[in-house]
Specification:
3-stranded antiparallel sheet, 8 strands
Length: 170
């Protein structure tokens, strides 16, 4: 996947959180999955609601740290709208994290019923990276539809992302 992103000049991916969580991320030495946070008894300001966390568990994605291909993932807007995140921060993550063979991908929100977890090879052939990273005629309805769908794609990193892979907080 990293090679596919390099073709578009992409060297990093993204994770959103609330500013209140930044000190915990530093103290823990990186980003933890929801399961790992709970196992450590960590109190955080989550991006997801209770339904979302239950759906993550049912879908088997609660042991992953959820990342986005760009800073336009629709789940952030929902988290702000519902008041779970009040001061959003984006963490810029080095794309080298994608070299881990256990990283998975989804072509939609990962906890949605019926969404398949994709391996690196499957993701390269399935995800609409072109619409995410190239300029096009955004006015065309079919392009807008493709873009809305592609922005829901997720990158799932097992358990933990070490702090040295976090390049910047924006």
């Amino acid at each position: 996947m990293r090679q596919a992103l390099t073709r578009f000049g992409i060297t990093h991916i993204w994770h959103f959180t609330d500013s209140e969580n930044i000190q915990n991320i530093i103290a823990q030495g990186g980003l933890l999955s929801w399961v790992s946070l709970n196992q450590r008894g960590m109190q955080v300001r989550p991006g997801g609601n209770d339904w979302s966390h239950d759906a993550d568990e049912i879908a088997g994605v609660d042991t992953y740290v959820h990342l986005a291909f760009n800073k336009e993932h629709p789940m952030l807007y929902r988290a702000i709208e519902e008041g779970r995140i009040t001061e959003p921060k984006w963490l810029k993550i080095c794309a080298s994290i994608l070299d881990d063979p256990e990283v998975m991908y989804t072509a939609d929100v990962s906890n949605k019923a019926g969404v398949e977890l994709l391996t690196n090879e499957q993701a390269k052939n399935t995800l609409d990276l072109e619409i995410l990273f190239t300029r096009t005629d955004w006015r065309a309805p079919e392009i807008q539809h493709r873009l809305r769908n592609a922005r829901k794609s997720e990158i799932l990193v097992p358990n933990f992302i070490p702090i040295n892979r976090i390049l910047k907080v924006i």
